[in-house]
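Below is just one:
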Amino acid sequence: MKYAVLFLLATPVYAGLSPAKVRESSLRHHPSVLAAMDKLRAGEQGVVGARGAFDARVVSDYRRQTKHDWNTTISRTQLEKPLRFANSKVYAGSEQIGNAAGALSPLYNTGNPTGQYGNYSLVGLRASLWRNLLIDPDRAALRNAKYDAKIARAEKDLTVLDVGRAGELAYWEWVTAQKVKSAYEELVKNGKLRNDYLLTRSKKGDIATIVVTENEQYVASRKGSLQAAAERLLRAEYALSLFYRDETGAPILPSAEEAYEDYPADLAALLGNIDLKSDVDELMKRRPDLQALALNVGKTDVDLDLARQALKPQVDVSTEYYQRTVEHPNMPRDYLMVMAQVSIPIEWNLGKGNIAAAGARRMVARRELSYGQQAYKVEVLALRRALQLQLEQVRQSEIEFSKSKELVASETYKLKTGGGNLFLVNIREQAQASAEASFHEARLSFMNTLLQYQALVSTGEK
């Protein structure tokens, strides 16, 4: 089984961790994917089981009645094969009728269609001419089993898309968390170095002790931000391990020294690899969740057709041909029996109730499909516009980050040459760390939207 690649970056293969490796691992070992595959197999075997209603079978019947001279035994063994039209079946077999006195069996024995003792071979056909003519419970079960198998396949494809997207997003969240943590580590490091520098100057009497205290306050604040970033990274590592697994399927927690693939330098180039212009109505035809909703509508149609059968009169006709296996001088060689069974519903509570319930379920399924199509179209169009806006946010946050570094360098130089201000230096450094974090967050948001859009317009290959 092959799957459409959700999103493959045009980058060289990395020896360390990469989104491609996480995606591959998750699609091979993630429990949701494995469960979807099991559900698909269950659906396919459900079709096999539903076909079993039409399997050939051997049926045997034995009856004995004792009443003085009317000591009669009747036995029939036949091979019957249900057919997939008109609720019909064909059958062939033998029937044995006899009594102790060797006389005729009683005429009131309605269970003996031939009414004569002897051994017979027979063939027969039974069919429904009104109720269950077009559909019956067995055929309805088979149709619905086929729908269930197709729904399971669509759900499997959707699971592959969702797990692949979630795995890549977990990877980029992990990368972003590392970068944000590194930014705050650098911020704390600078604060400590400046604190050492200020302590030295304070001991010499060059600056007041309050300046050192103020810088220590900044360091404490920065350490708090660093701890929050470290916690985020810890959570990101565990979240990533749900998708990054070893060959046994066990989660792998990435190490602190793990080499990894970084964000692409040119995010704008990624937009050239995805479809931003296809007609949304055409995309909807390939969307697995919408296919599942449409198939569910088909199931409710089957249920409604079956429910309507309860209001129809039942007219079942059987034709059986009997032939003696041993000729008898006083009895015919063969018989042709035609039988009819008629059942007319007088009260319609059962039929009307089932029809109303099935009709309501069909309306629910149709409304869910309609809303699903509307939501899909809105989401695709919104994401197309959001991608451009978020890409511009990445550009602006990169500019902000670059300018903040220039301000820090300038203010630090002024401080070292005696013309700077400690308060401004700390403010500039914190602004730089915040700008760097915003830059990484903007790239993560863009990647999230890109992956979400790519999953929306992709489908699995069978």
Notes: The beta strands are 57-65, 72-82, 89-99, 118-128, 314-324, 334-343. Confidence is low (pLDDT under 50) at residues 1-14, 100-115.
